């Protein structure tokens, strides 16, 4: 019997990426295999894109450079450096009114250390990473398949990770040069914060004669804070600027989840998405107490989804 095409999708969500990283670490423990060997395609947006690229990145011996457990440290050890705002920058940016909330130096130094000079074409399994081109107004998909076929689209993994995580108001757009042109890119979450639908369409094109797909979609937590009608009815541009990004990201993720539930049987679609406490919702809350709460949230979800993880173990192992 033919094996299904196996798809992993990881949402965006900043430091909340700790949640899917811990779930993936548990999946590696259960199967005894690296994530890149369990899936035919890994898609990820923003922080999910960083995880996808890290899990598919080859080491010196062509085995995975990072386990899922290794990437947990991005959130537990490096998040404060990624979301770092020196006093001088805060003053120059007028508290983020005159510039992005964070300088790009922190995130770029972390990505350089984790990804070094690895190239997209060398990914150990296929990856799909969304970003958005702001000068020409089109969705831009980084694909390892394109990188292997056309050197002009073979970018450094650290540049791909930086582009997909350039969340508006948080980090400045990222400029990536190709052989003859350049692309000005921001976070793919503005249209594909949950890239599971994009990933399924990509596999339908790549495997046109296959009808059996397993989709594992990992969220970074469903927000529990709300926007009061009484307060928001008199808001203007300044008050809506920050919450509107969260609405876009959350709305996109939930919509894709709804669509895939209609398209795929329940034994072929697995969505892992915990509910967050109000204090855990921010994408840039690097307080150690918040990081600990996110870990506890992930561990609770893993216990609650133990049966699904057992089923997945059998579906994913070749």
Distinctive features:
8 strands
Structure description:
The protein has 318 residues and is of the alpha/beta class. Helix content is 46%, strand content 14%. The chain has helices at residues 18-31, 35-38, 47-56, 68-76, 79-82, 87-92, 105-115, 144-149, 157-164, 189-192, 196-206, 229-232, 237-263, 288-304, 306-316, and strands at residues 5-10, 41-44, 126-133, 138-143, 174-177, 182-187, 213-218, 269-272. Strands 1, 2, 3, 4, 5, 6, 7 and 8 form an 8-stranded mixed sheet that branches. α1 crosses α14 (288-304). It is globular, with a radius of gyration of 19 Å.
H and E string:
EHHEHHHHHEEHHEEHHEHHEHH
Number of strands: 8
How many helical elements?
15
Overall pLDDT metric: 92
Largest sheet: 8 strands, mixed
Based on CA atoms alone, the radius of gyration comes out at 19 Å
How far is the N terminus from the C terminus?
A: 12 Å
Secondary-structure-derived class: alpha/beta
The unreliable regions are none
Oligomer: single chain
> What portion of the residues fall into strands of 2 or more residues?
5-15%
- Shape call: globular
Helix content: 40-55%
């Amino acid at each position: 019997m033919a094996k299904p095409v196996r798809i992993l999708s990881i949402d965006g969500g900043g430091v909340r990426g700790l949640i899917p990283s811990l779930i993936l670490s548990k999946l590696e423990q259960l199967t005894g295999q690296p994530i890149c060997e369990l899936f035919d395609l890994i898609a990820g947006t923003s922080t999910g894109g960083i995880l996808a690229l890290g899990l598919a990145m080859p080491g010196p011996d062509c085995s995975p450079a990072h386990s899922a457990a290794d990437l947990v440290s991005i959130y537990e050890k490096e998040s404060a450096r990624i979301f770092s705002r020196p006093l001088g920058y805060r003053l120059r940016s007028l508290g983020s009114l005159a510039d992005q909330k964070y300088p790009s130096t922190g995130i770029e130094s972390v990505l350089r250390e984790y990804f070094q000079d690895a190239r997209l074409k060398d990914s150990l399994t296929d990856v799909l990473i969304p970003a958005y081109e702001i000068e020409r107004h089109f969705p831009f998909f980084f694909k390892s398949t394109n990188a292997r076929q056309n050197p002009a689209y073979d970018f450094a993994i650290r540049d791909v990770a930086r582009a997909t995580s350039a969340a508006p108001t948080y980090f400045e757009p990222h400029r990536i040069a190709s052989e003859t042109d350049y692309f000005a890119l921001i976070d793919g979450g503005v249209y594909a914060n949950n890239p599971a639908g994009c990933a399924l369409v990509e596999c339908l094109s790549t495997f046109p004669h296959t009808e059996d797909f397993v989709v594992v979609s990992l969220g970074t937590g469903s927000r529990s804070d709300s926007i009061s009608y009484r307060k928001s009815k008199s808001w203007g541009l300044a008050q809506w600027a920050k919450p509107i990004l969260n609405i876009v990201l959350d709305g996109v993720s939930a919509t894709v989840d709804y669509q895939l539930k209609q398209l795929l049987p329940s034994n072929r679609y697995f969505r892992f998405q915990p509910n967050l406490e109000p204090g855990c919702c921010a994408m840039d809350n690097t307080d150690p107490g918040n990081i600990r709460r996110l870990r506890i949230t992930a561990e609770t979800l893993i216990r609650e989804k133990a049966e699904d993880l057992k089923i997945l173990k059998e579906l994913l192992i070749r």
